[in-house]
Amino acid sequence: MPEVQGLLGFGRPSRGIAPYAERSDPRGNAVDLWLERRLGWLEARAPLLRRRLLRRADQVMALEPEFRALSDDALRAAAQALRPRLLARRRGDVEALVRAFAAVREASDRVLGKRHYKVQVMGALGLYEGRMVEMATGEGKTLTATPAAVVAALAGDPVHVVTVNDYLAARDAEETRPLYGFFGLTVGVIDSDMDPEQRRDAYRCDITYVSNANLTFDYLRDRIALKARRGQARHRALALTRGGAGQPLMLRGLAFAIVDEADSVFVDEARTPLILSTTADDPEAAQLYADALALARSLTEPADFRIDRMNRQVELTEAGKRRLTERARAARLSGLWAIRLAREELARQALSALHLFESGREYVVREGKVQIVDEFTGRIMPDRSWQGGLHQMIEAREAVEVTGRKETLARITYQRFFRRYMRLSGMTGTGMELAAEFRDTFDLTTVRIPRHRPLKTRQLGATFVRDEPAKWQAVAERVAALHGAGRPVLIGTRSVEASQRCAAVLEARGLPHEVLNATQDRAEAEIVAEAGRRGAITVATNIAGRGTDIIPGADVLALGGLHVILTEFHESARIDRQLFGRTGRQGNPGSTEAIVALSDELFTRFTPWLRRLALRVPVRPVLWALRARAQGRAEAEHALTRREQTALDRQLERALAFSGPTE
Asked: Binding site for ATP, residues?
């Protein structure tokens, strides 16, 4: 099908809505990719794009008196009258776009009680054009997405509003549903517990709210159903001619996506491919993993193995390989144990399970199952598992039922998946520093939207203490003082285990508190609702980072607002800023500080030599250099991993282009 210019001539090219609309993977040479990277950096800083968005936002705002004078029925009729022009996708029909946005803005005020600010209109225009929109935390990104979603849906595009988890997808859909309903648009929500037919019903809606993981796995299921990239119409025809055989598709294609917290989806979670697998029946697996753990426990570090904690890898020494062979023979182990490569791989996985993975940090044991905790969101990922037998090894270590070995059905990375959208846009509070990567990988230009109100948050800096016990005592003393003054406090931790340790210290001090982590996430809405009240103390993992809106009352704002304490720096400073962004939202007062230990994993893993210097010479320049260097090394390592993953994706696509799809 020939390509036509994007909606109303803006943003990315679109082929219209094909039977299964998606974009083929772009391929470019090294020079093209280098130029794209430089162009992204320049375009993001050019004032022209922001001036144009501001000019069109002014045009939308100027229509407020006209649309306010309309009755509800007349307002709906005005929007419907624009539909043929939106469907026509005429290049340069700015008037239709401006009037449609003005109609959505007026309807939002009537049904939600929220009228979009000018900066939110600018952000929505950027999303509709297919941009990466950087808006400060607390500026109302949920509401910002609505004009772009409504107008795209009126233009006939199935719209996916993508969030980082099921909770936010359900919350945002429920909050905005009345606005979409005003225009006769249907809204679907995808939840991890839905059966296939419920998912299809949700994707058939005009606008679907869904987490990035659910969306990508549903796409992989469609790729399996489509086999060799057949279109949906051909797939249906084949099903009919075969007497109903064939699996119905989940999605209606990849037309338009608005990705919230895009830096998390496109960057933080992009290092690991998503793999759709099936469980193989392997009755002897449990004993195999138990034997591997027993042998691994008999090996000693560093004589038999070495651990690279920075890269999270385990390597056997030559002495360790010999000892492993001797002990396997002594235990009369056969089968895979007789094969050198298999024997050593089993030992490495067992050593990794014993030394690199901890309950309460990388995973939790819940309802008799080992469940992975997302390091970026702090949430459980119940349907995810580690590869290569590692997950089963950890199950054996935790003495729970060992699941069957996983066999891969399909795999894809977020980089490759989201590049396939006909039109892609994103929102983030921390996007400008990633502008070149967004341009290089996703062909997205980043635009920074100004704040509606100036920031009033007081940043109190960081306190460095020697070790973890000293850190929790310092946190408890600070919390006690703030609690006595009536201010609510949010304490951010990096793991379930750390949140439990913090809670134990607060309990010992008699400080009433709530804990929000991967093991206690069912009451999330209630805990968040209470976290802004006078004197509230909330201990939370990264669950409370992205998308969490803690609303302090007027009495709390008079006292200085919510106070946020970060207890461990993350590998990316962006995630630190996301936690700090829970306070001072919409121009309200608030304050932030960090209380961290020199024994924290970030420092011991990435800058051990500088950490030793800081222990001997704990002066502020050294301490701040420690943080900057550690986070810089971590982010550089992760960026390299993502570039390698993207390059591998492109190589695979080129290498397999003649033999069919790679999923």
From this structure: 120, 138-142, 549
